[in-house]
Amino acid sequence: MLEKLRVKDEIRIEMVCLGNICRSPMAAAVLHNKVQEMVNPKVIVSSSGTSNYHIGEGAHKLSVRTWENAGYKYDHSAKQFSKRSFAEQDLILCMDLSNRALVLTAAESDEDRAKVFLLRQFDSALKDIDPVSRQGEELVVPDPWGMESDAFEEVLAMIERATDGLLKQLAK
Ligand code: 4NP
Q1: What pLDDT, in 10s, does the model give residues 151-164?
Q2: Helices (H), strands (E): how many in the chain?
């Protein structure tokens, strides 16, 4: 899926969820830490939410606790997804089908649309699932908002597998 990106020296990746306080900051935290040693390509990670509910807030405390317990360090301030991201980013990786649909609504060209994926499409074990088929639901990172820490742990496990698969695909 990422053949064209492998020739770039710098790849910009934006993680997208609804509130930008639980899932996408965790995905950004994990990927940001995993790419620290990478120079070719250099990977620059950010995140946003499709809603304006939490603009300017830090990440959810259970999200922060989960990624810090796993050894990742990351500062976050929530922002809303903007269609400027189509010009600024190489990949826009959505957590669920509704985030993906909203992001695609803002796309203006095939080039824009080609940047949009579900993050879990990069999980090597799930690579054969078509996101627009009925099985697409299996590629979702479920919303842990309002849930206990085990839901955040499950989100972390999904993010770990998907970001490992993503980095394998970006490796030259
Ligand atoms: P996130 O979780 O999309 O993973 O950041 C949510 C956070 C807040 C809300 C919904 C989901 N909310 O409705 O405020």
Answers
A1: 999 999 999 999 99
A2: 6, 4
